[in-house]
Amino acid sequence: MPKDDGISIRPAGPPRIALVGNPNCGKTALFNALTGARQKVANYAGVTVERKEGLFVSPGGTRVKVIDLPGTYSLRARSPDEEVTRDVVLGRRADEEVPEAIVCVVDATRLRLNLRLVLEMKKLGRPVILALNMMDEAESQGIAVDAAELSAALGMPVVPTVAIRKDGIQPLLDQIDRTLQVAKSEGLAPKSAPCGWSEPSARDLRDYHVEVETILAQAVGRPSRPHLATRRIDRVLLQPAAGLAILLMLLFLMFQAVFSWARLPMELIDGGLSAVKAAIDAGMADGPLKSLITDGIIGGVGSVVIFLPQILVLFLFIQILEDSGYMARAAFLLDKMMGGVGLHGRAFIPLLSSFACAVPGIMAARTIENRTDRIATIMIAPLMTCSARLPVYTLIIAAFIPQRQVLGGWVGLPGLVLFALYAAGILSGLLIAFILKRTVLTGAREPLLMELPAYRLPRPRNVLLGLYERARAFLVRAGTTIFALMVVIWALASFPAAPEGATLPAIDYSVAGMIGHFLEPLLAPIGFNWEIAVALVPGMAAREVAVGVLGTVYALSDSGDAMRHSLAGLLAHSWSLPTALSFLTWYVFAPQCIATLSVVRRELNSYWWPTAMFFGLTSLAYGASFATFRVATALIGE
Amino acid sequence: MRTETEMAMSAGVSLGALRKGAQAEIIALDESAAVTTLDVGELERRLIEMGLVEGARIEILHEGFPRRDPIAVLVGDSTIALRRAEANAVMVRRLKD
């Protein structure tokens, strides 16, 4: 290889270091401590793996880029995340320069498992610095790690750190400076060993283990003891049946909080959007532009953004559960039950998130390593009743279900119907997962094999940074693709405009109206009238939009709560009970949400799956509504 | 001191068959004893990567529900959760039940 190759491929930009480590080693906390708020999150091209990059200025005055690579136990990549880590450190990715140096982060309390990856990293022939993290916990557990001995045994600089308290960050920065200095001078005449890494065989892995044991014997004075507090907590939380009950209770509380804490901010957003709408209404002349802004943009994107408070509350809980170490326990507790329908224990977080909104739920499915498991989870996510369906459910229930006490006066009939609608979604979702996993999505059942990390108190700073990241990702989705799709749906519902002296509502003359009228005969067998058919098209923007459209179609002049109230009264007179029940059933299954379909397309990088989802769920909705309508008609008459 | 019968009895026991509280030492990994759809050699490597390797001392800390599956195993300084189906590939010598 010509010597000057080493120089020509070096970018002119700042030097970069990569953070590599096992999951739960405090790598993200270290990344936050190094870079503070100067972080940029994007996606690696072609895969839905987050690329986290930050920037800091070293004590020597060098601007250094830090890349936080996905956590892994090995460079033998098993998931898209781990492939990114492997490819970046091996310099195989075209969109990412090879880092000048690697900072290996290890949990000092679990060196036996963590050091194996360090040995693998050493094989790369690049400068490696070891950040011996969580030293405080190691000390309190009586583990005496001799950093100097460890450094000598590993042949690399070792810096003890406590990332969550920002301890040891200064020495680490100094060490990065020194390492980069050496790397820079060697960059002119590359001296570092050539890459000696190749995918380890079982034999190699055993050799690594023997080496780790030798190093531990040399550098760790007292043998480690298991984390006692964790064992005590787990004795309660991981009891077979009681542990599951505690988990379900926790989920119930979380669910309650999502709805109760988010109510006020949601009303504020709603009020704010209405105020902006009213201001534009008053200040602008009528015309297509005004309609685009108020109905298309504010109405459309607003109807998704309004769920941000719920999503934030949900994410707050998820982040705390993750940071505390409970999330792995939840997957452990649910693995057998989820496995009954062929899903991985990890599928429950995406499914849980989907009760707020399927969009973040589908995005959360990234943590599932196996692709078929991930697809199955994503495909049933829209069947978890998202909160956009609630306005529709409450409208119909208020109009048709009498306030009667059932089950000995303990439960109100409306509440029972609402519960039945949620349960119908969950049960059919599990059933579909079961069928999918046995037909099209067969293949390797991913082993569970996961570490249960020690419990830790979540740090507010890291929780907030994580929360911010998730919220940002959601808003970016709402602001780009979803925004564009909303405008398309608005255009369908607005053009062509109603002619002069039109007697029917304007939507009747639009393309959406025409589609509705065209669909009407198709929907007649399931008891839908043309008003419902027309409302379904703009309802694709977001499920609850259908409520507003029904108000428009029935030409109600009120708006907001007053409209909903009078609409309920009107529907009670103009729809039969079988029609109402059929409509509710339709909403349990129908994939009436363009945002969900677009996220599925992007996350799975395929048009096939969202198409299959649309037609599959629509047929299911049609079949279920047909059955509901016919049975109800037979039982109670038209 | 173990008698020969005890040794014989404890030989060939798999981690997948142990109950909560059992302590053992790993003596071999045998993929063919487990039900897996992974590629040949893959399960063995994953087990080693999680520290389930010959010579390691293990203790079963927790069992899942229902059917006592999966299990949480203390291996060295880490706790690893795995299903019994895969734990069957780990051959152990019982130290304490």
TrEMBL record, chain A:
The keyword Translocase does not apply. Mg(2+) binds at N32, A33, T35, G36. Residues 14-182 form the FeoB-type G domain. GTP binds at residues 21-28, 46-50, 68-71, 133-136. Pfam families: FeoB_C, FeoB_N, Gate. It is found in: Cell inner membrane. GO terms for molecular function: ferrous iron transmembrane transporter activity; GTP binding; metal ion binding. PANTHER family: FE(2+) TRANSPORTER FEOB, FERROUS IRON TRANSPORT PROTEIN B. Belongs to the TRAFAC class TrmE-Era-EngA-EngB-Septin-like GTPase superfamily. FeoB GTPase (TC 9.A.8) family. Probable transporter of a GTP-driven Fe(2+) uptake system. This is Ferrous iron transport protein B. The lineage of its organism: Bacteria, Pseudomonadati, Pseudomonadota, Alphaproteobacteria, Rhodospirillales.
From TrEMBL, chain B:
Residues 13-94 form the Ferrous iron transporter FeoA-like domain. It comes from Magnetospirillum fulvum. GO terms for molecular function: transition metal ion binding. The keyword Iron applies. Keywords: Iron. Coiled coil: none annotated. SMART domains: FeoA. It comes from the Bacteria. Pfam families: FeoA (PF04023). This is Ferrous iron transport protein A.
